[in-house]
Specification:
The chain is an alpha/beta fold. It has ten helices and seven strands. 36% of the residues lie in helices and 15% in strands. Strands 3-2-1-4-5-7-6 form a seven-stranded mixed beta sheet, with helices on both faces.
Length: 282
């Protein structure tokens, strides 16, 4: 299955390549994805049991809404968003989070519909927030944006429910409380950037600096030593290669994966990126 939202750094075009290196999830094992984002790997692998985390509360709410209330979500999108889409309406919906009381009074279903509408109609499908956690992406220039894809949403909802798929609003460190021997964890964090590059890490109102990159690596060490298979996607920078080349775990570094980024705030950011796939096995 394909992702139902766009997401900066998403693995839609790389899922098959990455899965070829991960291999099948062992029988009886749980698949974990602590930086869920657009869910491309989850929906490509389609494991029988999975636990997915993301620090973005609205994103996790959308996944849980699609799992629990897909028909109600589609009805709300059709009745309140599809026919009303316009420039004025877009900014009216986008700016709801600037009115705290109004936003606080939204139901979880209404928040999910708003999130999906903005993702489908904003510039390049980018979800970006400012330091106050407010969405600040301009409207995209689409003649006929695909606001509703009923068949896609229903199919994905059925998968979430026929399999044991759970979504939790916590950061990546929570996986330490869950993953056990034989399980598989795929990390797709905000990528490391060289000093001369302009990078995008504003998925939430924080960032992901090199201290966090190192913390993630140390967490991976713990998981592998526990008997967990760990796979990490990151940019092929000297820093990332260096930290995963030291310590108690002998990581495999695969650098022949090339991605062309299609989401960015300007066309100059749409360039080929040399990806690094890091694999740690017990």
């Amino acid at each position: 299955m394909k992702p139902f939202i766009k997401w900066a750094g998403g693995k839609r075009t790389l899922a098959e390549q990455i899965y070829a290196h991960i291999g099948p999830i062992p029988e009886g094992a749980t698949y974990y994805e602590p930086f869920l984002g657009g869910g491309a790997m989850l929906l490509h692998i389609c494991p029988e049991t999975a636990v997915c985390f993301d620090i973005n509360e609205e994103l996790i709410n959308l996944y849980n809404t699609i799992k629990d209330n897909p028909e109600e979500l589609l009805h709300l999108l059709k009745e309140q968003y599809f026919e009303r889409h316009s420039t004025d309406f877009y900014y009216q919906i986008r700016n709801i989070d600037r009115r705290r009381k109004l936003y606080a009074n939204l139901t979880q279903l209404q928040k999910a519909a708003r999130f999906l509408y903005l993702n489908r109609t904003c510039y390049n499908g980018l979800w970006r927030v400012n330091s106050l956690g407010q969405n600040n992406v301009p409207m995209g220039r689409y003649k006929n944006p695909c606001i509703i894809n009923s068949d896609e949403i229903i199919e994905i909802s059925q998968y979430f429910n026929t399999s044991n798929i759970n979504f939790i609003n916590r950061d990546y460190k929570a996986v330490l409380e869950y993953a056990n021997e034989n399980d598989v964890v795929y990390f797709d964090p905000p990528y490391d950037i060289e000093e001369e590059q302009n990078g995008f890490v504003a998925y939430t109102k924080g960032g992901f600096n090199r201290e966090e990159q190192l913390n993630l690596k140390l967490l991976c060490d713990v998981l592998v030593q526990r008997g967990v298979t760990v796979v990490v996607s990151n940019s092929n920078t000297e820093y990332i290669r260096a930290i995963y080349s030291t310590g108690p775990v002998n990581y495999q570094l695969i650098d022949d994966i090339v991605a062309r980024r299609s989401i960015g705030s300007n066309t100059n950011s749409r360039r080929q990126i040399n990806e690094l796939l890091i694999i740690g096995r017990p």
